[in-house]
Design a protein that fits this description.
Keywords: DNA-binding. This protein is mainly α. Helices cover 70% and strands 0% of the residues.
Amino acid sequence: MTSSEQPRNPLHGLTLERMLTDLVDYYGWGELGERIPVRCFNLDPSMASSLRFLRKTPWAREKVEQLYLYTLRQHQRGQR
């Protein structure tokens, strides 16, 4: 798929690492672990262990994507 096939998909072209980095920068590990209660966010969190877990766990990755989209929408509403 090319970007012209998904012109309105805000996740197109974004890596999981970019999404997670942005969420950690915005919320911090503590709040991120409250919003998505998975062990890798709450117990000695690191980018490497979290990415490894998320790549193997589709339901958790979907939660990260949903939170990213929610946060993006909230931020855009605040800009108006």
